[in-house]
Amino acid sequence: xxxxxxxxxxxxxxxxxxxxxxxxxxxxxxxxxxxxxxxxxxxxxxxxxxxxxxxxxxxxxxxxxxxxxxxxxxxxxxxxxxxxxxxxxxxxxxxxxxxxxxxxxxxxx
Length: 109
Description:
alpha+beta; 23% helix; globular; 2 helices; 6 strands; single chain; Alpha-Beta Plaits
């Protein structure tokens, strides 16, 4: 049996309106995140009330979650980049500790 070693990283979940996904993914690319996952049409209740997950007009009218895993030193640039977005628009961000077995997959080359 092969033994796996775990490495501490940070997982960032970003909840925004679909119209802001490109802003978020461009930021993640610039900061050096090696990948991200996008979940469209998210439902939930928050500070601005309940949000339906179904499409009203197109995919930019519903909420989206973008999540990524990065080394700790990439968290602060992501926070700084998202500041202007969250100053003008609704959204949320969550940062948690995670452990990954394939650290090299999450490090920019």
